[in-house]
Amino acid sequence: xxxEIYGEAPHLARLLRPxxxxxxxxxxxxxxxxLHRIPKRSLHPQIEHSDSTLWVVRGSTSLSSFEAKFSxxxxxxxxxxxxxxxxxxxxxxxxxxxxxxxxxxxxxxxxINKHWLGTxxxxxxxxxxxxxxxxxxxxxxxxxxxDVLMSRRLSLTNERTHLESYTRSFPDRxxxxxxxxxxxxxxxxxxxxxxxFKIWRDKVAKEFANWILALDRLVSPSAGVRDDxxxxxxxxxxxxxxxxxxxxxxxVGNMVLPLxxxxxxxxxxxxxxGIAVPYLDVAPGATVQHKKIAQVARSAYEQFLAFLLHDxxxxxxxxxxxxxxxHLDDAAEV
Length: 334
Fold this sequence. Notes:
By secondary structure, this protein is mostly helical. The protein has helices spanning 2-6, 12-22, 31-34, 67-71, 78-82, 84-96, 111-117, 131-169, 174-178, 206-218, 227-230, 266-273, 288-309, 311-318, 324-333; strands spanning 36-37, 41-44, 47-49, 55-56, 122-123, 126-127, 188-189, 192-194, 199-200, 203-204, 239-243, 246-251, 256-258. It has 15 helices and 13 strands. The strands form six sheets. It has a three-stranded parallel β-sheet with strand order 6-8-13, with helices on one face. It has a two-stranded antiparallel ribbon with strand order 1-4. It has a two-stranded antiparallel ribbon with strand order 2-3.
């Protein structure tokens, strides 16, 4: 299935290399290989992907080769390595007029994930209602995000030095290197998307409900999560207000969002036939229950995408930092 869908599309590690090592300001000639558009073909006799607006870049274990570069701060290319993924995304968004880019990070809290997470606009944690996922979210909020914030602060503090070092080594690439400067704002934390739970008589089964409530307590003000981490929360239904010319969060909203009512073997059936849950109603042998689940899932996805693409949400995730202009002015001096 993987080869049929992706064909010979290049993986991410190969695509990042020209951006990182050469800092090209114009990589137009590389774009033909950057993204793989899912072709007009039939993944299943009843599901036709025609003129898809979905574009895919494959991940790769070769990304581990970047790991060592993050510890070598004396390398002139350090600045480019830190922002390589974000720079590539910006180029693709501009070229293909993309509305939304989702980056699927592995569960590892390794150096590469921490650095690259810090360059994105938002973090969208996905989890199941169980002990393992509860522990992972707890670690995300208490350890990983604080580490991301610390790495960002260090990178921003040393960014001018790294830029000067790089432009001394490659004076003809000064303008293109500036495009790799890190965004001053840290990423916002979006709601915890909880899926794969059982419904019994129109209610969440107790064993799953308890974990959902536990996740809710984990993001509550009394949970002991650091203030600078809580300041990044942007939940569903968040109340925003413009104060002193700056968009601010008045109420973070709901930070735990049960997304898909997955009954019994729904996820197993979804994986078995290669069809996402929102499309189970068109699968061969779909039951009334599957049709209901697909309808609920589509509605939930539509609402969440509306939230992601809402003008206020996008403005808040991407709003200029108070020091942004000064930051850019400092870079311009270099």
